[in-house]
Amino acid sequence: MPNKPGRRRLLAGLGMLPLARPAPAQTAADPAYPSRPIRVVIGFPPGGGVDTLARPTFQRLGDRLGVSILIDNRAGNNGNIAMDHVAKSPADGYTLFFGNVGNYTTHALFPNLGFDTLRDFAFVGQVTMGPLAIAVPADFPARTLQDLMDMARARPGMLNMGSGGSGGVPHFAFEQFKRMADLDIVHVPYRGSGPAFQDLVAGRVQMMIDGYSLMKGGHEAGRVRVLALTSRRRHPSLPDVPTVDEAGLPGYEFTSWSALAAPAGTPPAILRRLEDGLGWVMENSDLPRVILGFANFPRFATGAEVRERLVRDRESWTRMAKEAGIVAD
User: Fold this and answer.
1) Residue 28: pLDDT above 90?
2) Residues 16 and 300: beta-carbon distance below 8 Å
3) What string of DSSP letters covers 295-315?
4) Would you tell me how many other CB atoms lie within 10 Å of the CB of residue 214?
5) How confident is the model over 160-171, as a mean pLDDT?
6) Which residues, including other chains, have CB under 8 Å from residue 62's CB and lie 6 or more apart?
């Protein structure tokens, strides 16, 4: 699809890094790459926020590269099982990892892993940067975030917050929220955000903080109520949903990002082929609009920029875990 000035203005307004890239040349390491399906491993079950973002992203990247890209869900231990698998896979571009900042900063809670994200991964590119949503069951009495905080203060230790597991992005966002609001709410980790969300809909947990991509269907169907977003500003897809800062907790902000990575040692030409393809899709396909529909922000960054961001975020997340006393349940 040819570039259009309107699309370029849209992407610039969303804070993306639009890259006008020609069709990538064949790689020197493997002139036929990719010549067979690529497998993208995700550390969460189907239906979770990362999985929901991954499927449209890699369908379009596969179309661009001319091969199928298969999603391989390997849930458990904050994505560490999936990351360990990819880190030890052949560095040939056919086994990749897609995760969020919580996956890549996993050493904040798990310092003795058999892999290291900065040592054992080569980064391809960033896809999103955006807020999380705070939601409650549709029949829950709290109609606003202030109502929820008032209920938690009146019933300390009686409300539960479900998450996709200890040490993930929602867990950190929750602990920061609980600490700033001085609330006693119990964290209930699940083996993935999808199962936790099912219990939210059923009322077995009273709140969740997670990506809106997970909650979109339930919210639109009236099964859950989104009370606030964790970003500094409102999202254009949910103009009536306030930020946490607006809704009663001044100064609160928490954002996440997602990125694609390959095993360390993957030939630079293959990494470039993947990075070029991802950058092309982020600029020239409808993927940015799909991402916006999930109340996230499309944000492309190169593999080198992802590594720089991770160095900073890994340090800040480790400090946050120590200051807030966040531990793996």
Assistant:
1) no
2) yes
3) T--EEEEEHHHHHHHHHHHHH
4) 30
5) 89
6) 38, 68, 69
The burial class, CB within 10 Å (0-12 / 13-18 / 19+), for 149 is: buried
* Residue 238 CB neighbour total at 10 angstroms: 17
Superfamily of domain 30-130+255-324: Bordetella uptake gene, domain 1 (3.40.190.150)
Q: Which two tokens stand for residue 92?
A: 């040939």
For residue 184, give both structure tokens.
């006693």
> Residue 63 above 70 pLDDT?
yes
Choose among 6, 10, 14, 327: nearest CA to 175.
327
Contact in structure between 329 and 160 (CB atoms under 8 Å): no
Spatial distance between the Cα atoms of 255 and 211, rounded to a whole number of angstroms? 10
d(CA 195, CA 107): 25
- The domain ranges of the chain are 30-130+255-324, 131-247
In the block, which residue shows the tokens 């040592």? 119
Structure tokens that stand for 15 in this block: 């804070």
Entry pTM: 0.82
- Indicate the pairing of strand 207-210 with strand 38-42: unpaired
Q: Would the pLDDT of 97 be above 70?
A: yes
d(CA 159, CA 117): 35
- Which of the following CATH numbers is that of domain 131-247: 3.40.190.10, 3.40.50.360, 3.50.50.60, 3.40.50.300? 3.40.190.10
Q: What token pair was written down for 68?
A: 């199928």
| Nearest residue to 130 via CA among 30, 248, 15, 249 | 15
Task: Tell me whether the CATH fold assigned to 30-130+255-324 matches the one assigned to 131-247.
Answer: yes
Tokens of 166: 């200890």
The alpha helices in the chain, defined as continuous H runs, are: 5-13, 49-65, 80-87, 101-104, 117-120, 145-154, 169-181, 193-202, 212-220, 244-247, 268-284, 287-293, 303-324
Q: What are phi and psi of 11, to 5 degrees?
A: -65, -40
Tell which wins on pLDDT, 161 or 5. Answer: 161
